[in-house]
Write a structure and sequence with these properties.
Pfam families: Glycos_transf_2. With about 260 residues, this protein is an alpha/beta fold. The chain has helices at about 25-30, 50-60, 75-85, 105-115, 165-170, 180-190, 215, 220-235; strands at about 10-15, 40-45, 65-70, 90-95, 100, 120-130, 135-140, 160-165, 195-205. The chain has one domain: Alpha-Beta Complex (Spore Coat Polysaccharide Biosynthesis Protein SpsA, Chain A), CATH 3.90.550.10. Strands 1, 2, 3, 4, 5, 6, 7, 8 and 9 form a nine-stranded mixed β-sheet that branches. Helix 2 links the parallel strand 2 and strand 3.
């Protein structure tokens, strides 16, 4: 599995993980299986207390494209920003430590950036999977046609994204003031400065499970996303005409109680 290439990587892929021992091996292996091989993978251990760091270091021993950073616990957004600062390749993307990247994801997205210099961000469709890795369905967000204006209300550039670093830097990179929804805020800013392309194939497998950040922080994500929308309206000179009307609606159902009998 060891990579013997001496050339600089074309793409930097980042994976930030906190206590992710359950799914990390599968996530890392999906990156290492990419058909386009000129990349580096930076695994940022965000102060895990389980076997996450040990697992990551085992892969670094097997493949020199894997670089592991052991850090104190910072939290999702600061960790992502710090991990990206460790990279330098002209293309940039990230994979969550509990998700799976299709084997051609990097090849197909990088081909768009190689071919079209005006494009700064390319994204793919995705499939949701369960804890067991079995497909649950086609991603809802990627069904929405891309437009810079529609993105003000719908985050369709959800997964997988590969960015031209120059466009990422021009947009200002990760805004650490966002505790969550930092990727939505970034994509809004990038869409204002560069062309975006959509690959209509599911090249990312997004895992839904009880411990995922998206489940624990759903309400906070909604409020952070609203803040990203408000900032975008201000940047685009639309805040005097529009405001965000946020409605959070509960959905309830009955279920049978568990009995001890």
């Amino acid at each position: 599995m060891t990579n013997n290439e001496t050339t600089s990587p074309a793409a930097s892929l980042v994976m930030t993980v906190y206590n992710g021992e359950r799914y990390l091996a599968e996530a890392v292996e999906s990156v290492l299986a990419q058909t386009r091989r000129d990349f580096e993978l930076v695994v940022w251990d965000d102060g895990s207390t389980d076997r996450t760091l040990e697992i990551a270091r085992d892969y670094a021993k097997l493949d020199d494209r894997v670089r592991v950073v052991a850090a104190k616990h910072l939290g999702r957004t600061p960790a992502l920003k710090a991990a990206i600062a460790e990279t330098a390749a002209p293309y940039l993307g990230w994979v969550d430590g509990d998700d799976i990247l299709a084997v051609t994801a990097l090849e197909e997205t990088a081909a768009v950036l190689d071919r079209e210099s005006s494009v700064g961000l390319v994204y793919t469709d995705y499939v949701t999977i369960g804890e067991d890795g079995k497909a649950r369905g086609y991603g809802n967000r990627c069904r929405i046609p891309f437009s810079k204006d529609r993105m003000l209300l719908d985050f369709m550039t959800f997964h997988f994204r590969l960015m031209r670093r120059s466009a990422f830097d021009a947009a200002g990179g990760i805004d650490e003031s966002f505790r969550c929804a930092e990727d939505y805020d970034l994509c809004l800013r990038m869409a204002e400065l560069t062309e975006v392309r959509h690959i209509r194939r599911p090249l990312y497998y997004y895992r839904i499970h009880a411990d995922s950040i998206s489940q624990r922080m759903r309400i906070e994500q909604i409020h952070c996303a609203r803040d990203a929308m408000v900032h975008a309206l201000e940047r685009r000179g639309l805040s005097d005409r529009f405001e965000i009307d946020l409605q959070i609606r509960g959905r309830y159902s009955l279920r049978r109680r568990k009995t001890n009998g």
